[in-house]
Amino acid sequence: MRALERCSLFGFLFLTLGLVQGARAQTCNPADYTHAGSKNVVMIVLDDVGLERLSWWPTPLFPNSTATLDPAPPPTPNLECLANRGTVFTNVWSNPLCGPARAALLSGRHCHRTGFLANPGSLPSGANSLSPSEFTIPELLNNWSQGAYRTGAFGKWHLANPRDPDAWRSPLDSGFDTFLGTLGNVGEGFLDDFGNHHYRFTKTCSYSFGPSQQQCQGSPQLIGLCNLCPLGDTNCFCDLPPCSHPYPRCVDPETPPYKSEDWSGLHTAKDAMEWIDRLDPTEDRFFAYVSFNAPHAPWQAPPSCLYTYTPPTGNPDPDLHPEGMNDPIQGKDYFGAENQHRRHAQVFHWMLESVDTLIGVLVCLLDELGILDETVIVVIGDNGTSAKNLEPNLPYYDLHGKNTPYNLGVRVPLIIADGSALSGMSCSPLPDACSIPADLHNVPDPATCPGPIDDNHELISIVDLWATVGRLAGMSSACLDAEKAAWESSTMDIIDSVSFLDPHGNYVSGRDYALVERCRPDGINSRRAITDGQYKLILQDERFVDLCGVKNREVEFFDLSQNEEERGGAGWNLLHGPSGPICSHPNFPLILHDCSPGAPGRGLDFDSQGSCHYPQPPAQGQPPEDFTCPPSFPANEEMTLNALYDQLTAWLGGAR
Predict the structure, then answer these.
(1) Spatial CA neighbour of 201 closest among 221, 219, 228
(2) Of 166, 268, 497, 609, which one has the greatest count of Cβ atoms within 10 A?
(3) Taking the CA of residue 603 as centre, how many other CA atoms within 13 Å lie in the half-sphere pointing to its CB?
(4) Do you find a cis peptide bond into 450, omega within 30 degrees of 0?
(5) Are residues 287 and 465 in contact, defined by beta-carbon separation less than 8 angstroms?
(6) What is the full DSSP assignment across 56-98?
(7) What is the CA angle 73-463-118, rounded to 5?
């Protein structure tokens, strides 16, 4: 008997029989796909979780640092279990902001190609959603399988402007046949602005029905514990508009929206689990994109049965409970200014451990359904931790986190675990059922997930997940190359993704450089970085606040093996000597700073003439102009500097 054979909280989900919307012309040989030769893929996206938040991470982000994290990271035993049974990738580079990272992940293309360079709402009209023309992971899998893959997205989307009345179509336009979640962050209320936090938010349900790909008629399908209806209105039912299938009421209308079981993370986990449970494992393969809103702001205590983390002694939490009843804590200072960081970190840790618990529940469900051996689990972070939750003991924590191109903002966790490697794992009940149905509150027993962790140090970009997921699902390299070439030929554009799963089943990177990018259309706050894994070149049109307190156009060049903390100023930024800049480039002045004690800030205010594509690519047929450095500059570093800059300008000019 199936694990969820009951009328569930959110009702039965009915699946489309046709191809996903936007699927491309078939290019792989139909014989390339077989059910037995393919695998399910569950991709879990962590939101704002940097490497320093995982206590078991095998390679410290700052191995030479003596800083002690206070408070220490929370326990995340289920992620650790996946890491112990799978492979951990320690050299993975993403974009510094949620939307650009997710766009690159699903499309396999750098953001300057897709135009998705900033979060929805900050983009110009007409560029507020990921374009339907992008060839996404679910479309790739459906092309290969002739529509045999079911594809569902759950939780945070953040690839469409939620205030756009047609935004609900965005996940379907991007190839998913089911979407249950929030179009943006839960803290971004829209429409009637009912609710803007993890216990009170607007939820969107989007489906494709039938081979004609007709959408349900009427306004977007918005649910969320009847949260568009007045609190306590017993006549409020969350039925979908009339479609080709019935859909039971999503909640008991007598139930008010403030209950611990209604935390956003529980919505995401339940939606994904119920959808998976309704599939037929003998016929359906699936790609589940599970993107938890937490631990992204707003920071609120989750249901207490989901976490065990105890805050440090002397750090009270008088206003963080009862769970769900408090307002989001951001903007409030319950513990005094000196403890503001501790307050944020405490709740952030509760939220992260709770997400980890739900990941364990999901893994155990796959095991209970008997499909774990046929499933690959991928866990990827979207970007680094926000400054409010970074530890003050970390160097430059307030300047180098999320939204910046520094390691704390763009180095992200990646775990890949083949379900067959999880055999022998046992699941045990949570101490508290936490309002989860009795057969859905098991988590892996850490004792059955011993290490050591297999860590891989290959250079990987977040765009590489597109091709790698295809290979993990069972696509041959030849089929993957054919799909990629067909799209590029039809669009005259480029897919940047390179599979790091080689034809022999080994994880080997196919790239020499990784690109990081984020900017606004007006060029302000444009940030790009490129790395070969050891050296890193950073170009910024304008920083929020640099180390000398001056906003400027800046170039930085680091040897990460010697300066993993990316310290600025003389002796650290390789382009900056004791007396000022020591290298130059004709395309832009090197505005560099000596931030050593007592040194005045040097710099020139940004003249606002830059653009998102800064530095400008060279004229057609012309090679990029090199940096020039004095003879005393190490030759190997100058060669590396020019190679990084040449690759960056080639990418921005349209080349690979």
Answers:
(1) 228
(2) 497
(3) 25
(4) no
(5) no
(6) T-SS-SSTT-----SSPPPP-HHHHHHHHHSEEES-EE--SSH
(7) 75
How far, in Å, are 16, 445, 449, 504 from residue 656 at the CA level?
Answer: 37, 45, 41, 25
Task: Answer yes or no: are the C-beta atoms of 511 and 482 closer than 8 Å.
Answer: no
Instruction: Return d(Cα 322, Cα 199) in angstroms, integer.
Output: 12
Q: What is this structure's pTM? A: 0.86
- Regarding beta strands 178-182 and 203-207, do their DSSP bridges make them parallel or antiparallel, or are they unpaired? antiparallel
> Tokens 């769970």, residue?
323
CB 172 within 8 A of CB 215: yes
Query: Distance between CA 27 and CA 484 in Å, rounded?
Result: 9
DSSP reduced 3-state for 344: helix
pLDDT for 347: 83
Residue type at 520?
A: R
Provide the 10 A C-beta neighbour count for residue 426: 12
C-alpha distance from residue 527 to each of 42, 117, 147, 627 (Å): 31, 10, 39, 19
For residue 194 the two structure tokens come to 């009912």
From the list 265, 567, 556, 239, the residue with the least C-alpha distance to 396 is: 567
Half-sphere exposure of 406 (CA within 13 A, CB side): 26
Q: List pLDDT tens digits, range 477-494.
A: 999 999 999 999 999 999
pLDDT in tens, 28-55: 888 899 999 999 999 999 999 999 899 9
Question: Which residue has 């990987």 as its token pair?
Answer: 460
